[in-house]
Design goal:
Keywords: ATP-binding, Cytoplasm, Kinase, Magnesium, Metal-binding, Nucleotide-binding, Transferase. By secondary structure, the chain is an alpha/beta fold. The chain has 14 helices and 14 strands.
Amino acid sequence: MKVLVINSGSSSIKYQLLNMEDESVLAKGLVERIGIDGSRIVHKVNGEKHVIEKEIKDHEIGLKLVLDILVSKDKGVLNSLNEIDACGHRIVHGGERFKTSVRIDKNKLSDIEMLSFLAPLHNPANAMGIKAAMELLPEAPQVAVFDTSFHQTMPEKSYLYGLPYEYYEKYKVRRYGFHGTSHRYVSKRVADILGKNIEDLKIITAHIGNGASVAAVKEGKSIDTSMGFTPLAGLVMGTRSGDIDPAIVGFIAQEEGITAKEVINILNKKSGMYGVTKGFSSDMRDIEDNAIEGEKVSRLAFDIYEYSIAKYIGGYAAAMNGVDVLVFTAGVGENSPILREEICEQYLGYLGVKIDKNINDFKGEEKIISTPDSKVTVVVVPTNEELMIARDTKEIVENKLEELN
């Protein structure tokens, strides 16, 4: 089975074509600046990168160009589009409606669009990708995989806020959590690496990138996670503030003479590492390099970043009454040995965490970095959300075919 994974943003489409017989990536790429001047496709196949600059007015045109490339003689990997057996779509928000991945029909597409009030920047774009795929690949089953669904196992004590209950009843204001596909992939993968049953493990997964979140995974289920009603909550991130006193919103609005909506925009786009470093950078590679060189503001920002992660790890160890495994993943978690070392050595000694500095000196690999006598096994696992989406798609499509047979 060949599965096309589609991650549709407001002005972009990320894609991967996978052969699910061996889970290999046949081709992948990015359609960017859709509807904007300078639109182009960056397509990668057989280790080569191809850049095609072309006017791309909308998502349907963008996806059609992707499909044309996939069957082209010089850049393609397919003889015919009929070889695409299914499409798997990343959907940011499933609300309480979608607790698992689902096969998409018109009713489910309508539900995804209806949930746009919870994710106005993401779900409409995700829906555009689905519509384009349904139009261009009418015979291929379409499957939706939701960032929020993995966290739907959280108990009420984890997801409800200390607000009037009517806001939950009327508007579904609650903790939803995000990065669920990544947290699900790495928690399952680390159990395989250790040769243990995931139902016997208490795992903390730290998805640390420009957007970042930590999750407590007990017996294979998410019981808590740092992001909340929106991805703004939790850890200090690249441009997002993470947790703050909610009264700050009203205070800044009043003092600066701006609206609450404008303050929220600042918290999302001009805060976090970008804000603390006075606009120097939101990229942790830049900040880490400066911190190592002794630049004080970058060192402070790096300390704040690590401290916020460590606090959530400690909190989730308490929430699960212990922890067996700590997993670092995503761009920073996979590629920053110094972050992993400092978090473990400066903050997690009370848990019996010990890491081997020599083994930890690497980037982007799958590896155990804790010492044999560490009471918590610490592992780096590169995330693979596209593979998780493709696996869900394959399983749902094959189960449907079995039902028909």
